[in-house]
Amino acid sequence: MTPARTMFQKIWDDHVIDTFPDGTCLLAVDRQMLYEGTSYQAFESLRASGRPVRRPGASIAVPDHLVPTKDRARATMTEGSRHMVEALEQNCDDFGIPQIRLEDVRQGIVHVVGPEQGFTLPGLVLVCADSHTSTHGAFGALAFGVGTSELEHVLATQTLTQRPWLTMRCTLRGPLPPLLSGKDLALAVIGHVGASGGTGHSIEFAGDAVEALSMEGRMTLCNMAVEAGARSGMVAPDETTYRWLAGRPLAPRGEAWAAALGSWRTLPSDPGAPFDAEEVLDVATLSPRVTWGTSPEHVIGIEDRVPDPANAPSRTRSAAWRRALDYMALAPGTALRDIRVDRAFIGTCTNGRLEDLRAAAAVVRGRSVAAGVRAMVTPGSGLVRRDAEREGLDRVFVEAGFEWREPGCSMCFGSGYDHVRDGERCASSSNRNFEHRQGRGARTHLMSPAMVAAAAVTGRLTDVRELVDAV
Questions:
Q1: C-alpha dihedral, 287 to 293 to 296 to 299, nearest 10°
Q2: What are the structural domains of the chain?
Q3: What's the rounded Cα separation, in Å, for the pair 446 and 465?
Protein backbone atom coordinates (compact mmCIF):
# COMPACT_ATOMS: atom_id res chain seq x y z
CA MET A 1 0.00 0.00 0.00
CA THR A 2 1.42 3.39 -1.02
CA PRO A 3 2.04 5.67 2.00
CA ALA A 4 0.00 8.87 2.16
CA ARG A 5 1.98 11.84 0.87
CA THR A 6 1.72 15.58 1.22
CA MET A 7 1.41 17.82 -1.84
CA PHE A 8 4.99 18.94 -1.29
CA GLN A 9 6.22 15.35 -1.24
CA LYS A 10 4.34 14.50 -4.44
CA ILE A 11 5.86 17.38 -6.36
CA TRP A 12 9.31 16.83 -4.86
CA ASP A 13 9.28 13.10 -5.64
CA ASP A 14 8.18 13.75 -9.22
CA HIS A 15 11.18 16.04 -9.75
CA VAL A 16 14.01 14.09 -8.07
CA ILE A 17 16.61 13.06 -10.65
CA ASP A 18 19.08 11.57 -8.20
CA THR A 19 19.73 11.39 -4.46
CA PHE A 20 23.25 11.64 -3.10
CA PRO A 21 24.58 9.69 -0.08
CA ASP A 22 24.06 12.66 2.28
CA GLY A 23 20.40 12.96 1.26
CA THR A 24 20.85 15.93 -1.05
CA CYS A 25 18.67 15.67 -4.14
CA LEU A 26 19.22 16.79 -7.69
CA LEU A 27 15.88 18.32 -8.69
CA ALA A 28 14.54 19.00 -12.14
CA VAL A 29 13.38 22.62 -12.44
CA ASP A 30 10.46 23.21 -14.80
CA ARG A 31 10.51 26.98 -15.17
CA GLN A 32 12.26 30.10 -13.97
CA MET A 33 11.49 33.82 -13.97
CA LEU A 34 14.04 36.57 -14.49
CA TYR A 35 14.20 40.29 -13.85
CA GLU A 36 16.83 42.96 -14.41
CA GLY A 37 18.65 42.84 -11.07
CA THR A 38 19.81 39.39 -10.02
CA SER A 39 19.90 37.87 -13.51
CA TYR A 40 22.74 40.13 -14.70
CA GLN A 41 25.55 38.27 -12.94
CA ALA A 42 24.09 34.87 -13.86
CA PHE A 43 24.26 35.76 -17.56
CA GLU A 44 27.77 37.18 -17.20
CA SER A 45 28.94 33.94 -15.60
CA LEU A 46 27.35 31.86 -18.35
CA ARG A 47 29.21 33.90 -20.96
CA ALA A 48 32.50 33.61 -19.09
CA SER A 49 32.18 29.82 -18.96
CA GLY A 50 30.93 29.51 -22.54
CA ARG A 51 27.71 27.79 -21.48
CA PRO A 52 24.40 28.21 -23.29
CA VAL A 53 21.01 28.37 -21.63
CA ARG A 54 19.74 24.80 -21.75
CA ARG A 55 16.03 25.51 -22.25
CA PRO A 56 15.42 29.15 -23.21
CA GLY A 57 11.67 28.58 -23.45
CA ALA A 58 11.54 27.55 -19.78
CA SER A 59 12.17 31.17 -18.76
CA ILE A 60 10.24 34.40 -18.86
CA ALA A 61 11.86 37.77 -18.18
CA VAL A 62 10.39 41.12 -17.21
CA PRO A 63 11.95 44.29 -15.73
CA ASP A 64 10.36 45.35 -12.45
CA HIS A 65 12.70 46.22 -9.57
CA LEU A 66 14.57 49.19 -11.04
CA VAL A 67 11.95 50.77 -13.28
CA PRO A 68 10.37 54.14 -12.51
CA THR A 69 6.62 54.22 -11.91
CA LYS A 70 6.12 57.55 -13.63
CA ASP A 71 7.84 59.30 -16.55
CA ARG A 72 8.71 55.89 -18.00
CA ALA A 73 10.71 57.17 -20.97
CA ARG A 74 14.18 55.68 -20.77
CA ALA A 75 15.71 59.11 -20.90
CA THR A 76 14.25 59.77 -17.44
CA MET A 77 15.75 56.64 -15.89
CA THR A 78 18.97 56.75 -13.93
CA GLU A 79 22.00 55.56 -15.84
CA GLY A 80 22.33 52.50 -13.62
CA SER A 81 18.69 51.48 -13.97
CA ARG A 82 18.70 51.99 -17.72
CA HIS A 83 21.86 49.90 -18.02
CA MET A 84 20.32 47.00 -16.08
CA VAL A 85 17.04 47.07 -18.01
CA GLU A 86 18.84 47.18 -21.36
CA ALA A 87 21.25 44.45 -20.23
CA LEU A 88 18.28 42.19 -19.45
CA GLU A 89 16.88 42.80 -22.92
CA GLN A 90 20.22 42.12 -24.59
CA ASN A 91 20.86 39.00 -22.53
CA CYS A 92 17.45 37.61 -23.37
CA ASP A 93 18.00 38.37 -27.06
CA ASP A 94 21.43 36.73 -26.97
CA PHE A 95 20.25 33.58 -25.20
CA GLY A 96 16.85 33.32 -26.89
CA ILE A 97 14.77 33.83 -23.75
CA PRO A 98 11.17 35.09 -24.04
CA GLN A 99 10.77 38.52 -22.49
CA ILE A 100 8.24 41.20 -21.77
CA ARG A 101 9.90 44.55 -22.40
CA LEU A 102 9.37 47.74 -20.44
CA GLU A 103 7.10 49.26 -23.10
CA ASP A 104 4.85 46.18 -23.31
CA VAL A 105 1.40 46.57 -21.73
CA ARG A 106 1.99 43.22 -19.99
CA GLN A 107 5.06 44.53 -18.13
CA GLY A 108 4.84 44.48 -14.36
CA ILE A 109 6.11 42.79 -11.23
CA VAL A 110 7.37 39.33 -12.10
CA HIS A 111 5.24 37.62 -9.43
CA VAL A 112 2.12 39.28 -10.84
CA VAL A 113 2.99 38.74 -14.49
CA GLY A 114 3.87 35.03 -14.21
CA PRO A 115 0.45 33.91 -12.94
CA GLU A 116 -1.33 36.45 -15.14
CA GLN A 117 0.19 34.91 -18.25
CA GLY A 118 -0.45 31.31 -17.19
CA PHE A 119 3.30 30.71 -16.89
CA THR A 120 2.65 29.51 -13.32
CA LEU A 121 0.86 26.15 -13.21
CA PRO A 122 0.10 23.48 -10.57
CA GLY A 123 2.69 20.81 -9.97
CA LEU A 124 5.66 22.75 -11.33
CA VAL A 125 8.99 23.39 -9.67
CA LEU A 126 9.46 27.08 -10.35
CA VAL A 127 12.28 29.37 -9.22
CA CYS A 128 13.34 33.00 -9.38
CA ALA A 129 16.18 34.90 -7.76
CA ASP A 130 13.74 36.68 -5.46
CA SER A 131 12.45 35.51 -2.09
CA HIS A 132 8.81 36.23 -2.85
CA THR A 133 8.73 33.55 -5.53
CA SER A 134 6.68 31.70 -2.90
CA THR A 135 3.72 33.66 -4.32
CA HIS A 136 3.32 31.08 -7.08
CA GLY A 137 2.69 28.30 -4.58
CA ALA A 138 -0.89 29.58 -4.47
CA PHE A 139 -1.43 27.49 -7.61
CA GLY A 140 -0.11 24.27 -6.10
CA ALA A 141 3.39 24.78 -7.47
CA LEU A 142 6.62 24.27 -5.54
CA ALA A 143 7.98 27.80 -6.01
CA PHE A 144 10.92 29.30 -4.17
CA GLY A 145 13.65 31.90 -4.33
CA VAL A 146 17.23 31.08 -5.30
CA GLY A 147 20.55 32.90 -5.25
CA THR A 148 22.36 34.27 -8.29
CA SER A 149 24.76 31.33 -8.57
CA GLU A 150 21.83 28.92 -8.24
CA LEU A 151 20.02 30.79 -11.01
CA GLU A 152 23.06 30.39 -13.23
CA HIS A 153 23.04 26.65 -12.51
CA VAL A 154 19.34 26.40 -13.37
CA LEU A 155 19.78 28.30 -16.64
CA ALA A 156 22.65 26.05 -17.64
CA THR A 157 21.19 22.70 -16.54
CA GLN A 158 17.47 23.05 -15.61
CA THR A 159 18.41 21.38 -12.33
CA LEU A 160 19.21 22.39 -8.77
CA THR A 161 20.59 20.57 -5.73
CA GLN A 162 18.47 20.80 -2.61
CA ARG A 163 18.18 18.94 0.66
CA PRO A 164 14.59 17.81 1.38
CA TRP A 165 12.61 20.39 3.32
CA LEU A 166 10.37 19.92 6.31
CA THR A 167 6.62 20.29 5.90
CA MET A 168 4.10 22.29 7.89
CA ARG A 169 0.35 22.45 7.51
CA CYS A 170 -1.26 25.66 8.67
CA THR A 171 -5.02 25.20 8.95
CA LEU A 172 -7.04 28.40 9.01
CA ARG A 173 -10.57 27.88 10.26
CA GLY A 174 -13.13 30.43 9.20
CA PRO A 175 -15.13 32.02 7.96
CA LEU A 176 -12.93 35.08 7.53
CA PRO A 177 -14.85 38.16 8.72
CA PRO A 178 -16.10 40.69 6.14
CA LEU A 179 -13.62 43.33 4.91
CA LEU A 180 -10.66 41.16 5.92
CA SER A 181 -8.41 39.60 3.30
CA GLY A 182 -5.52 37.29 2.55
CA LYS A 183 -3.17 39.96 3.90
CA ASP A 184 -4.83 39.82 7.32
CA LEU A 185 -4.51 36.03 7.26
CA ALA A 186 -0.85 36.23 6.29
CA LEU A 187 -0.02 38.66 9.08
CA ALA A 188 -2.04 36.59 11.56
CA VAL A 189 -0.05 33.47 10.64
CA ILE A 190 3.29 35.26 10.98
CA GLY A 191 2.23 36.72 14.31
CA HIS A 192 1.28 33.22 15.47
CA VAL A 193 4.33 31.21 14.37
CA GLY A 194 6.89 34.03 14.41
CA ALA A 195 9.30 35.30 11.78
CA SER A 196 11.38 32.10 12.06
CA GLY A 197 8.60 29.64 12.87
CA GLY A 198 8.57 28.21 9.35
CA THR A 199 12.33 28.02 8.86
CA GLY A 200 13.27 25.08 6.67
CA HIS A 201 9.64 24.25 5.93
CA SER A 202 7.24 24.33 3.05
CA ILE A 203 3.99 25.62 4.51
CA GLU A 204 0.76 24.23 3.10
CA PHE A 205 -2.16 26.52 3.89
CA ALA A 206 -5.44 24.68 4.36
CA GLY A 207 -8.84 25.06 5.98
CA ASP A 208 -12.15 26.61 5.01
CA ALA A 209 -10.82 30.17 5.32
CA VAL A 210 -8.17 29.37 2.69
CA GLU A 211 -10.56 27.49 0.41
CA ALA A 212 -12.85 30.54 0.41
CA LEU A 213 -10.06 32.88 -0.74
CA SER A 214 -9.81 34.07 -4.32
CA MET A 215 -6.61 33.30 -6.21
CA GLU A 216 -5.48 36.86 -5.45
CA GLY A 217 -5.93 36.24 -1.74
CA ARG A 218 -4.09 32.93 -1.94
CA MET A 219 -1.19 34.58 -3.75
CA THR A 220 -0.95 37.17 -0.98
CA LEU A 221 -0.93 34.43 1.65
CA CYS A 222 1.79 32.39 -0.08
CA ASN A 223 3.77 35.53 -0.92
CA MET A 224 4.29 36.21 2.78
CA ALA A 225 5.11 32.63 3.79
CA VAL A 226 8.77 33.60 3.51
CA GLU A 227 8.20 36.26 6.19
CA ALA A 228 7.59 33.34 8.56
CA GLY A 229 10.96 31.93 7.51
CA ALA A 230 9.50 29.30 5.16
CA ARG A 231 11.11 28.16 1.92
CA SER A 232 7.73 28.17 0.20
CA GLY A 233 4.00 28.49 0.73
CA MET A 234 1.44 26.31 -1.03
CA VAL A 235 -2.31 25.96 -1.49
CA ALA A 236 -3.83 22.86 -3.05
CA PRO A 237 -5.27 23.53 -6.51
CA ASP A 238 -9.04 23.32 -6.79
CA GLU A 239 -11.86 24.57 -8.99
CA THR A 240 -11.02 28.18 -8.03
CA THR A 241 -7.51 27.59 -9.39
CA TYR A 242 -8.70 25.99 -12.61
CA ARG A 243 -11.24 28.72 -13.35
CA TRP A 244 -8.56 31.36 -12.85
CA LEU A 245 -6.08 29.62 -15.16
CA ALA A 246 -8.47 28.68 -17.97
CA GLY A 247 -7.73 30.68 -21.11
CA ARG A 248 -4.53 32.32 -19.86
CA PRO A 249 -2.07 32.89 -22.73
CA LEU A 250 0.46 30.25 -21.63
CA ALA A 251 -1.95 27.79 -20.00
CA PRO A 252 -2.67 24.45 -21.71
CA ARG A 253 -5.59 24.34 -24.15
CA GLY A 254 -7.88 21.71 -25.64
CA GLU A 255 -6.80 18.12 -25.00
CA ALA A 256 -3.71 19.36 -23.16
CA TRP A 257 -5.98 21.23 -20.72
CA ALA A 258 -8.02 18.11 -20.01
CA ALA A 259 -4.84 16.09 -19.45
CA ALA A 260 -3.42 18.78 -17.19
CA LEU A 261 -6.59 18.85 -15.08
CA GLY A 262 -6.37 15.10 -14.60
CA SER A 263 -2.81 15.46 -13.31
CA TRP A 264 -3.49 18.54 -11.18
CA ARG A 265 -6.37 16.86 -9.37
CA THR A 266 -3.94 14.28 -7.97
CA LEU A 267 -1.77 16.93 -6.29
CA PRO A 268 -3.63 17.72 -3.02
CA SER A 269 -2.22 16.05 0.08
CA ASP A 270 -3.56 12.59 0.75
CA PRO A 271 -5.83 12.13 3.78
CA GLY A 272 -3.68 11.23 6.74
CA ALA A 273 -0.45 12.41 5.12
CA PRO A 274 2.03 13.23 7.91
CA PHE A 275 3.39 16.77 8.30
CA ASP A 276 6.45 17.63 10.36
CA ALA A 277 4.50 20.43 12.04
CA GLU A 278 0.86 21.42 12.37
CA GLU A 279 -0.55 24.83 13.24
CA VAL A 280 -4.22 25.71 13.59
CA LEU A 281 -5.72 29.21 13.76
CA ASP A 282 -9.35 30.14 14.25
CA VAL A 283 -9.83 33.31 12.21
CA ALA A 284 -13.60 33.70 12.52
CA THR A 285 -13.19 36.61 14.96
CA LEU A 286 -9.99 38.04 13.49
CA SER A 287 -9.74 41.84 13.31
CA PRO A 288 -7.68 43.77 10.74
CA ARG A 289 -3.97 43.19 11.35
CA VAL A 290 -1.38 45.99 11.52
CA THR A 291 2.33 45.84 12.33
CA TRP A 292 3.78 48.10 15.00
CA GLY A 293 7.50 47.25 14.80
CA THR A 294 10.26 46.27 12.40
CA SER A 295 9.36 42.65 11.68
CA PRO A 296 6.18 41.20 10.19
CA GLU A 297 5.83 39.21 13.42
CA HIS A 298 5.35 42.52 15.28
CA VAL A 299 1.65 42.47 14.45
CA ILE A 300 -1.54 43.07 16.43
CA GLY A 301 -5.18 43.94 15.81
CA ILE A 302 -6.12 47.50 14.93
CA GLU A 303 -8.00 47.73 18.23
CA ASP A 304 -4.87 46.90 20.25
CA ARG A 305 -2.05 48.90 21.80
CA VAL A 306 1.68 48.80 21.18
CA PRO A 307 3.12 46.12 23.49
CA ASP A 308 5.49 46.79 26.38
CA PRO A 309 8.93 45.15 26.07
CA ALA A 310 8.72 44.45 29.80
CA ASN A 311 6.02 41.91 28.95
CA ALA A 312 7.98 40.15 26.22
CA PRO A 313 8.31 36.35 26.60
CA SER A 314 12.12 36.44 26.79
CA ARG A 315 15.04 38.80 27.28
CA THR A 316 15.99 38.45 23.65
CA ARG A 317 12.50 39.36 22.49
CA SER A 318 12.38 42.22 24.99
CA ALA A 319 15.58 43.71 23.56
CA ALA A 320 14.25 43.30 20.01
CA TRP A 321 11.00 45.03 20.93
CA ARG A 322 12.84 47.94 22.52
CA ARG A 323 14.97 48.42 19.45
CA ALA A 324 11.88 48.26 17.24
CA LEU A 325 10.05 50.85 19.34
CA ASP A 326 13.07 53.15 19.29
CA TYR A 327 13.27 52.92 15.50
CA MET A 328 9.52 53.37 15.06
CA ALA A 329 9.42 56.25 17.59
CA LEU A 330 6.55 54.64 19.48
CA ALA A 331 5.88 54.30 23.21
CA PRO A 332 4.50 51.15 24.84
CA GLY A 333 0.77 51.35 25.37
CA THR A 334 0.11 53.64 22.39
CA ALA A 335 -3.19 52.81 20.72
CA LEU A 336 -2.70 51.93 17.07
CA ARG A 337 -5.64 54.20 16.22
CA ASP A 338 -3.69 57.18 17.62
CA ILE A 339 -0.74 56.72 15.26
CA ARG A 340 -0.69 59.27 12.45
CA VAL A 341 0.78 58.54 9.02
CA ASP A 342 2.61 60.64 6.43
CA ARG A 343 2.48 58.25 3.49
CA ALA A 344 0.13 55.59 2.12
CA PHE A 345 1.30 53.04 -0.44
CA ILE A 346 -0.80 50.45 -2.29
CA GLY A 347 0.90 47.99 -4.63
CA THR A 348 3.69 45.34 -4.78
CA CYS A 349 3.73 41.62 -5.58
CA THR A 350 1.84 41.14 -2.33
CA ASN A 351 -1.11 43.43 -2.95
CA GLY A 352 -0.96 45.03 -6.40
CA ARG A 353 -3.65 42.99 -8.15
CA LEU A 354 -7.04 44.13 -9.40
CA GLU A 355 -8.90 42.71 -6.39
CA ASP A 356 -6.60 44.71 -4.10
CA LEU A 357 -7.24 47.94 -5.99
CA ARG A 358 -10.98 47.35 -5.93
CA ALA A 359 -10.92 46.85 -2.16
CA ALA A 360 -8.96 50.06 -1.64
CA ALA A 361 -11.13 52.06 -4.07
CA ALA A 362 -14.25 51.00 -2.17
CA VAL A 363 -12.83 52.78 0.87
CA VAL A 364 -11.55 55.83 -1.00
CA ARG A 365 -14.64 56.47 -3.13
CA GLY A 366 -16.25 59.79 -2.18
CA ARG A 367 -13.45 60.69 0.24
CA SER A 368 -10.21 62.67 0.06
CA VAL A 369 -6.69 61.96 1.21
CA ALA A 370 -6.11 63.58 4.59
CA ALA A 371 -4.11 66.80 4.77
CA GLY A 372 -0.39 66.17 5.01
CA VAL A 373 -0.58 62.61 3.64
CA ARG A 374 0.98 61.64 0.32
CA ALA A 375 -0.72 58.57 -1.14
CA MET A 376 0.10 56.49 -4.21
CA VAL A 377 -1.03 53.38 -6.06
CA THR A 378 1.26 51.26 -8.25
CA PRO A 379 -0.67 48.50 -10.07
CA GLY A 380 1.11 45.16 -10.17
CA SER A 381 1.15 45.00 -13.97
CA GLY A 382 0.15 46.90 -17.05
CA LEU A 383 -2.84 44.58 -17.46
CA VAL A 384 -3.97 45.28 -13.91
CA ARG A 385 -3.60 48.99 -14.62
CA ARG A 386 -5.56 48.70 -17.87
CA ASP A 387 -8.39 46.75 -16.25
CA ALA A 388 -8.52 49.14 -13.28
CA GLU A 389 -8.81 52.10 -15.67
CA ARG A 390 -11.59 50.36 -17.59
CA GLU A 391 -13.48 50.13 -14.29
CA GLY A 392 -12.75 53.75 -13.44
CA LEU A 393 -10.70 52.90 -10.38
CA ASP A 394 -7.95 55.28 -11.45
CA ARG A 395 -10.42 58.18 -11.35
CA VAL A 396 -11.56 57.18 -7.87
CA PHE A 397 -7.98 57.32 -6.62
CA VAL A 398 -6.96 60.47 -8.48
CA GLU A 399 -10.07 62.39 -7.46
CA ALA A 400 -9.35 61.47 -3.85
CA GLY A 401 -5.79 62.79 -4.10
CA PHE A 402 -3.78 59.60 -4.75
CA GLU A 403 -0.99 59.41 -7.31
CA TRP A 404 -1.83 56.83 -10.00
CA ARG A 405 1.42 55.24 -11.16
CA GLU A 406 2.83 52.71 -13.65
CA PRO A 407 3.68 49.14 -12.59
CA GLY A 408 6.87 48.31 -10.72
CA CYS A 409 8.25 47.23 -7.35
CA SER A 410 8.42 50.89 -6.40
CA MET A 411 8.24 51.81 -2.74
CA CYS A 412 8.26 48.19 -1.54
CA PHE A 413 12.02 48.36 -1.07
CA GLY A 414 12.58 52.11 -1.27
CA SER A 415 13.73 52.30 -4.87
CA GLY A 416 15.64 55.30 -6.10
CA TYR A 417 12.43 56.65 -7.62
CA ASP A 418 9.90 55.93 -4.87
CA HIS A 419 10.81 55.93 -1.21
CA VAL A 420 9.66 57.10 2.19
CA ARG A 421 11.72 59.96 3.62
CA ASP A 422 13.68 59.77 6.86
CA GLY A 423 11.31 59.86 9.84
CA GLU A 424 8.13 59.54 7.79
CA ARG A 425 5.54 56.94 8.74
CA CYS A 426 3.97 54.88 5.96
CA ALA A 427 0.85 52.72 5.86
CA SER A 428 1.87 50.11 3.31
CA SER A 429 0.40 47.07 1.57
CA SER A 430 3.92 45.68 1.00
CA ASN A 431 5.48 42.63 2.66
CA ARG A 432 8.38 43.86 4.79
CA ASN A 433 8.65 46.50 7.49
CA PHE A 434 12.36 46.09 8.22
CA GLU A 435 14.46 49.05 9.30
CA HIS A 436 15.16 51.30 6.28
CA ARG A 437 13.23 48.94 3.96
CA GLN A 438 11.21 51.72 2.32
CA GLY A 439 13.97 54.27 2.60
CA ARG A 440 16.56 55.48 5.08
CA GLY A 441 14.75 56.05 8.38
CA ALA A 442 11.36 55.03 6.95
CA ARG A 443 8.82 53.73 9.47
CA THR A 444 6.54 51.14 7.90
CA HIS A 445 3.24 49.71 9.09
CA LEU A 446 2.08 46.69 7.08
CA MET A 447 -1.63 46.13 6.46
CA SER A 448 -4.16 45.25 3.77
CA PRO A 449 -4.88 47.59 0.83
CA ALA A 450 -8.28 48.47 2.34
CA MET A 451 -6.58 49.39 5.61
CA VAL A 452 -3.99 51.49 3.76
CA ALA A 453 -6.83 53.33 2.06
CA ALA A 454 -8.51 53.92 5.42
CA ALA A 455 -5.26 55.36 6.82
CA ALA A 456 -4.83 57.58 3.76
CA VAL A 457 -8.22 59.26 4.09
CA THR A 458 -8.14 59.65 7.88
CA GLY A 459 -4.46 60.45 8.34
CA ARG A 460 -4.02 57.77 10.99
CA LEU A 461 -4.18 54.01 11.43
CA THR A 462 -7.91 53.29 11.19
CA ASP A 463 -10.19 50.27 11.33
CA VAL A 464 -11.58 50.05 7.80
CA ARG A 465 -14.78 48.61 9.23
CA GLU A 466 -15.56 52.06 10.63
CA LEU A 467 -15.62 53.50 7.11
CA VAL A 468 -17.18 50.79 4.97
CA ASP A 469 -20.27 48.72 5.68
CA ALA A 470 -19.66 45.00 5.32
CA VAL A 471 -21.54 43.54 2.35
A1: -20
A2: 7-277 (3.30.499.10), 291-466 (3.30.499.10)
A3: 17
